[in-house]
């Protein structure tokens, strides 16, 4: 559609992959983006100038096949770092890939971008606006090397609403912050993280040109829901995961303090391995809160919960807590860890998984 707009957020890893650099460059060129091309199994990261050339070769091949500017093609890669891209193999497959393009191929695309994932990840929501059905649909992939510092490993979300590019950029930043920037499996930010949001403009509703447009709040809410669904799907499919855990920090002085505390818990090997064993070893959680670097922390105000079970109140074991209560919570596949600092009004949450033997096996055998 001539009215389509596309924006993206990308990894902040200094060793960003060649396709990330090329995609950012092509987006900044201001051309009408027509094609997204993704390969799996090879990240094309840590490959120097040859990696850049290989990524461009893929774009050039599509440019020639479809008679569009090279900047109209955005490349994405995921897989092993440090290996050169098999461009001949990829370019050979492009004609058939282009021939099979179809509006209903979302699920096939979700399967096609997987690496160590065990299942595809997709989400779609619709709502009515002035008699028009507006749709938001997206897919994502990611399972390990997950601690996004902007987005997830790969995510593609589209809406048929018409949206101004500046407004679309504001939407992706807000939606990303509350979803992909709130998940972690292992604390490792990938070299290839990329997330794009597309507004095709094929719906007949008037174009959203500012936050004051009546469609804006409904569209933002729906896009945020799809982003969160896709982000949480990554944690549910985390490498070797047996638990989906929401870590909630309430009563912090500011956002940084809340997030630092939550991520310290989410990244603790001792906490994560206890979760794998369904062991309500709350002392490990308490210890992490104590070492999270919270300035002038008043221990007498700290409360810790597993779901609605209060383990620690006033900085010490709750007198009514029993091991049976804690064990009943952590035996579940999904539960929350709640930290109440009671020193401010800011709340944040992070989603994470446990650390199992399978996670170690998958990553120990990743290249074999």
In short:
The protein contains eleven helices and 14 strands. By secondary structure, it is α/β, with parallel strands linked by helices.
Roughly how much helix do the residues carry, as a percent range? 25-40%
Note the gap between the termini.
Answer: 44 Å
- Give Rg in angstroms: 22 Å
Q: Any low-confidence stretches, pLDDT <50, length ≥5? A: none
List the total number of helices.
Answer: 11
User: Oligomerization state of this entry?
Assistant: single chain
- Could you give a short account of the major beta sheet? 7 strands, mixed
Residue-averaged pLDDT, rounded?
A: 96
Assess the beta-strand content as a share of residues: 15-25%
Shape: globular
Number of beta strands: 14
Class from helix and strand fractions: alpha/beta
Q: Strands of the biggest beta sheet: in what spatial order?
A: 7-14-9-13-10-11-12
Order of helices and strands: EHEHEHHEEEHEEHEHHHEEEHEEH
Itemize the secondary structure elements and their pairings.
Blueprint: E1 5-10, H1 18-28, E2 35-42, H2 48-66, E3 73-80, H3 87-99, H4 106-112, E4 121-129, E5 132-141, E6 154-159, H5 165-177, E7 183-184, E8 194-199, H6 216-236, E9 244-252, H7 255-266, H8 269-276, H9 282-291, E10 303-306, E11 309-313, E12 316-317, H10 323-330, E13 334-340, E14 346-353, H11 357-364
Parallel strand pairs: 2-3, 6-8, 7-14, 9-13
Antiparallel strand pairs: 1-8, 4-5, 5-6, 9-14, 10-11, 10-13, 11-12
Helix pairs in contact: 1-2, 2-3, 5-6
């Amino acid at each position: 559609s001539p009215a389509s707009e596309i924006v993206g957020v990308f990894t902040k890893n200094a060793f960003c992959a060649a396709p990330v650099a090329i995609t950012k460059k092509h987006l900044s060129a201001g051309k009408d983006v027509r094609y997204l091309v993704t390969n799996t199994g090879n990240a094309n990261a840590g490959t120097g100038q040859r990696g850049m050339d290989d990524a461009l070769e893929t774009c050039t091949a599509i440019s020639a096949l479809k008679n569009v500017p090279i900047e109209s093609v955005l490349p994405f890669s995921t897989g092993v770092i440090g290996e050169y891209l098999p461009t001949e193999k990829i370019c050979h497959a492009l004609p058939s890939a282009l021939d099979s393009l179809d509006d209903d191929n979302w699920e096939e695309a979700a399967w096609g971008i997987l690496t160590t994932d065990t299942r595809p990840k997709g989400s779609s929501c619709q709502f009515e606006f002035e008699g028009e059905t507006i749709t938001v649909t997206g897919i994502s992939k990611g399972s390990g090397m997950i601690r996004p510092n902007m987005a997830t490993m790969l995510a593609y979300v589209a809406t048929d609403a018409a949206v101004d590019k500046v407004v679309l950029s504001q939407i992706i930043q807000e939606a990303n912050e509350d979803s992909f920037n709130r998940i972690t499996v292992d604390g490792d930010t990938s070299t290839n993280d990329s997330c794009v949001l597309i507004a095709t403009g094929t719906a007949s509703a008037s174009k959203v040109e500012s936050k004051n447009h009546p469609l804006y709040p409904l569209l933002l809410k729906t896009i945020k829901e799809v982003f969160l669904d896709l982000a949480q799907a990554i944690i549910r499919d985390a490498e070797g995961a047996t638990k989906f855990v929401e870590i909630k920090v309430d009563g912090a002085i500011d956002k940084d303090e809340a997030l630092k505390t939550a991520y310290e818990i989410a990244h603790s090997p001792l906490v994560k391995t206890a979760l794998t064993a369904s062991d309500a070893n709350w002392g490990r959680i308490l210890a992490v809160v104590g070492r999270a670097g919270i300035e002038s922390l008043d221990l007498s105000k700290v409360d810790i919960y597993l779901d609605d079970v209060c383990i620690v109140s006033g900085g010490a074991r709750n007198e009514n807590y029993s091991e049976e209560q804690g064990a009943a919570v952590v035996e579940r596949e999904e539960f929350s860890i709640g930290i109440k600092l009671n020193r401010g009004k800011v709340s944040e949450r992070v989603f994470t998984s446990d650390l199992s033997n399978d996670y170690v096996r998958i990553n120990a055998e990743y290249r074999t």
